[in-house]
Amino acid sequence: MLLASLLVIAVAYLLGSIPMGYLLVRVFLKQDVRSVGSGNIGATNVLRSGGTGLGAATFVLDTLKGASAVYIGGIVGMLLAPDAQLRNMQALAALTAVLGHMFPVWLRFKGGKGVATGFGVFLVAAPTSALAAIAVFALVLLITRYVSLASILGAASFPFFAWMLVRGDRPPFYIAAQFAVPLLIIAKHHQNIRRLLAGTESRLGYSSPRTREKGTREKA
Question: Please, is 204 exposed, middle or buried when counting C-beta atoms within 10 Å of its C-beta (0-12, 13-18, 19+)?
Answer without folding.
Answer: middle
